[in-house]
Write a structure and sequence with these properties.
The complex is a heterodimer of chains A (156) and B (255). Chain A has 156 residues and is α+β, with helices and mostly antiparallel strands. Chain A is built from 3 helices and 9 strands; from the N terminus they run H-E-E-E-E-H-E-E-E-E-E-H. The chains are: A alpha+beta (156), B mainly alpha (255).
Amino acid sequence: MILLSLIATVALANPTITMDHDQLTAQIGQTLSVESVVRSSVPTIAHLNVVSLDGVYVDLEDWTQDVTQPVPAGPETPVDWEFQAVNPGHFVVYVVLVPRTGPLVAGPPVRITVSPRQTLDTAGALPVAIAVPAILGTVVLAGRARIGRRLTRRTT
Amino acid sequence: MNEWSVVARQESRDLWIGGRGPVLLFGFSVLLSTITYLAATNRAMNFLEQREAVNLTAQVGLAVGVLLTVVTSADAISGERERGTLEGLLLTPVSRRAIVVGKLAAASTMWLGCLVVSFPYLWVLGHGVAGATQAAVLALTVGTLVAVGLGGVGMLFSGWTNSNKTSLACGLLLLLVLFAPTQLPALPKTGFGQLLTRVNPIGSALHYISQVLVSRRPWTHDLSYLAAPVVVAVLVLVVVVAAGPRLVRLTAGSR
C-alpha cells in the first residue's frame, strides 16, 4: 500500500527542470549553449523563451531556430539549447515544460548580459566608399572628355 | 596570335575605352559603396558578425557582376545586328567561331572589372577576421564560373535573336528566375529546396559562398554545390564553340 502510494506520488508529481547555468555573459553575435535536464514521468514539450529586462523587443526566431523540443518521459532527460545573442542588453532565457495535461512548469532563469560590439570599422569604410566611385567617376569623365575632344578635332 | 584573342582584344577596347564598361562599373561601385557604408554604420545591419557583412557584399557583388556580364554579352551579336556593324565584322578574315569566343571573352572582362572593384570593399569589411581574402578568392573562383556560364547563355540569346531588346529581356528574365529562389531563406533546408538550390547555378554558388564565409565550413565540405556552376559553364562553352558559326549571321535563324 505504501509502495503504491509512493508510485502514485511519483507518477502524479509535476515535471521539474534544471539548467546548467544561472548566469552567462556574451558579446553580440556570439552563439551560446545551455543544457536543461527534465525530470518527468510523462512525455512533455519543452519550449525556450527569451525576455529582455531592458524592454527591448526580442524576436525569438532571430535568437534560435529550435524553440520547441519534445521531451520523452524519464528520470533525467538532457535537452540542449543553442541560441545566438542578437541584441545587446540584459536578458533572461528560460525553458517552459508543456505537459499534455496539467499546468505549465517553468524552469529557473538563465540571466544573460550581452555586450555590444562595433563589428566593423566605420572610419575605414567611409574613405573606401567615397574613393572608389570618385576614382571611377573621374575615369569615366576623363574618357568622355577625351572622346569629345577627338570628335571635335575630326569635325574641324 | 589566336583569331579569338584578336577579337577579344578589339571588343574589350570597344567596351572599356569610350564604351559603357566604365559607366557600368561606376554604377556598380556606387551600389557597393552604399552597401558597405550601411553595413559598417547602420545599427540594424551591423549587429552580427563581421563575416556576415563580408558575405552580404560578396553576394551582392557576384549577383550584380553577373548581371552586368549577361547584359554585356546579350548585346554582343544582336546589338551589332541592330547597329548595322555586323557586316563589317563578318568581312574581317576571322572565323565566326573566333568571333563568338572573342566576344564572350570580352564580355567576361566586365565580370573581372566588377571583381577588381569589389576587392577594396571586401577588404575594408573583412580585414582582421581573415574574411576578406577568403571572400576575394571565392568571388574569383565561384563568381568567374557563374559569370562565364551565364554570360555564355546571354551570348546564345544574342545570337538567336534579331532584336537587342529581346535578347536583353531574355537574359534578365533568366537571371530573375535564377535569383528568385535564393531569396527564400528556408529553401536549402528542405529536400526539394536543396535539390532546387543544387541545380540552380546562382543559388548553389551563393549557398556555397555563405557556407564557407559565415558558417566557416572547410572549402571541401560543400564542394558538391559547385557542380551546377561548373556544368553550366562547361556546357555553355561547348555549345557556344560548337554553334558559333550559326550564331554569327546577319539575320538570326537564317541559313
